[in-house]
Design brief:
Elements lengths: L1 H18 L13 E8 L2 E9 L3 E4 L2 E5 L11 E5 L4 E5 L8 E6 L7 E5 L2 E13 L2 E10 L7 E5 L3 E7 L5 E10 L2 E4 L7 E3 L8 E2 L10 E8 L8 E9 L4 E10 L2 E8 L6 E8 L4 E8 L2
Antiparallel strand pairs: 1-2, 1-13, 3-4, 4-5, 5-6, 6-7, 8-9, 9-10, 10-11, 11-12, 12-13, 13-14, 15-20, 16-17, 17-20, 18-19, 18-21, 21-22
């Protein structure tokens, strides 16, 4: 009995050492979000945001509301089993009651996991990936038999950074930026910041969004004057909910003097009162807006 227990403990410890914190490969946490650039042979590149807006307990298991690209046909509830490293999506049907298995993050290269019928997932590669100029541990998964099943690549500390699905005309989803535990990586903007006109403003300003109330998008305009040295300014424009929790970082970059506008899309957040704050080294102002669906 003691020998069997020791073997089980050794297996568990070896998996833990190998995988580290397995949930870091897909950091499911309310507030985290990912922006993907997607395209195929029929569409020009477009951007989409995947946000974790809430969590809930279903069948004594904690799920997170998170639409994974290419998984639109399932309810947007996913979870990670910390004991076996497997990612599940809530699914009423198929050969697995209430869930469908997506990938297994404890996998080593060439490991296979059984999904349903003759459908297998294979860990096709491990190693390292360079994302946003930094190096991360990675795990890549692909289909064994079903050609249309998705290829997904995960980076430790980032999440899914690449998806490819479809045959013979695949759709590609490439990570442009993300917000993990409040830290911004890469470019998280859905809509490019547009500079309006060539006149240099005399001072900082933050205009009331228009329209307001809005559903689901609104335009925010602001102005940045020329500073003393004529250099660019560090500009940050952030949206908060009524409790002061950060919802989205619209701008976080250096900008030249000028007047700007940006579209805020609230399609993935609930109705309510929100605040947006413009902040530089020399200026800060906050205004209120109402999302009414």
């Amino acid at each position: 009995m003691k020998t069997k227990l020791l073997i089980v403990l050794l297996i568990f410890v070896s998996k833990s050492l190998y995988a580290g914190n397995v949930s870091d490969y897909f950091p499911l946490k309310v507030g985290n979000s990912w922006v993907y650039t997607w395209y195929d042979v029929f569409h020009d590149p477009q951007r989409m945001r995947v946000s974790i807006t809430k969590d809930t307990i279903i069948n004594s298991k904690r799920y997170y509301n998170c639409y994974i690209p290419t998984m639109w046909q399932y309810p947007p509830w996913v979870r990670i089993d910390s004991l076996n490293g497997k990612i599940y999506a809530l699914y009423n049907g198929g050969c697995q009651p209430n869930e469908i298995l997506l990938d297994s993050l404890f996998s080593k290269k060439n490991d296979r996991i059984f999904q349903c019928g003759m459908d297998y997932r294979t860990c096709t590669d491990t190693g390292y990936a360079v994302i946003f100029g930094s190096t991360y541990d990675k795990k890549e998964f692909g289909p064994t038999i079903v050609l249309s099943a998705a290829t997904r690549k995960y980076a430790n500390g980032i999440g899914i950074y690449y998806i490819e699905e479809g045959d013979p005309y695949p759709t590609f989803y490439i990570l442009s930026g993300c917000v993990i535990d409040g830290s911004v990586h890469g470019d998280t903007l859905l809509t490019a910041v547009k500079q309006k006109g060539i006149t240099v403003p005399e001072g900082f300003s933050l205009s009331q969004n228009y329209p307001n109330p809005f559903n689901p998008s609104t335009i925010i305009r602001y102005s940045i004057p020329s500073n003393v040295n004529g250099q660019t300014s560090d500009v940050k424009l952030v949206v908060f909910d009524a409790l002061g929790k950060e919802v989205n970082t619209l701008v976080n970059e250096k900008q030249n003097a000028g007047s700007y506008e940006i579209e805020f899309d609230g399609a993935e957040i609930p109705s309510g009162v929100y605040f947006y704050k413009l902040e530089t080294d020399e200026f800060a102002e906050t205004k209120r807006m109402i999302l009414l669906k």
